[in-house]
Amino acid sequence: MADRRGALVSAASDARVLFGAAVLLALIVAAAAAPLLAPHDPLEQDLLASFLPPAFQAGADPVFPLGTDSLGRDLLSRLIYGARVALTVALVAASLAALLGTALGLIAGYFGGWVDAVISRLVDVWMAFPPVLLSIVLVAIIGAGLHSVIIAIVIIDWTRFCRVVRAEVLVQREQDYVASAVTIGLGRWRILWHEILPNLLPLLLVLITLEMGIAIIVEAILSFVGLSVSSDQATWGGLIQEGRLYIHQAWWIMVLPMACIIVSVLGLNALGDGLRRTLDPVMRR
Q1: What's the pLDDT at 261?
Q2: Does residue 232 surpass a pLDDT of 80?
Q3: What is the architecture of the domain spanning 2-284?
Q4: Deepest in the core among 45, 121, 187, 265, taking most CB within 10 A?
């Protein structure tokens, strides 16, 4: 208990964890309170106010702090609503991928034998495909939409969790506490779910935060090629796709959503790296 408390205190004082937590909190607040935070309707058009620059440039309109796009829509509002799409995909896809990959990784690592061989070969084959290309193909087959993006990410990225969890279970099953559980007569499934899995939770927490960053990037790529949500809904990838057409005329349409993606991914990666260094007892030493 003291070790865990010390790890939590160490995590709370780590600059990477604080930065990542602040980014994640900002995403959650933006997504949850988008109607309250957004100064305008993200779909409201005003052609007379198109291509207005951000407030820090000459010719800006204070009504639109981050400027407008080609149709006069408020960019700040669209970025806030885009955060809702990004966070939804990140949380749901990462959680489902973790659930599937962890279950298979636990089974493969603990039972071994032909079960491990089958799951490991499946992971090897699956990871041989280029992930971005495979995600585009899957969404094109399933059909565009937010649910399709989530399904594609889960189908592709469960292998990350499976491989890491399997490797860790191979180590954990040789530990004394597992031998003690076997000695007192606990069944395999009870040992797996009640003894080994709780010791993997810090690792899974780190993997989920890293996967959230990957999911945000994949969603942005699919939005960029028009395979995510409907074109009229605000997404960061959709804003980049639109902004590239006007990069010399209105650079902010493309640069600002790119900055949102970069900061979000860096923050989530920093959170995952900071948690790994503070929660892993080996790295703490």
Answers
A1: 94
A2: no
A3: Orthogonal Bundle (1.10)
A4: 265
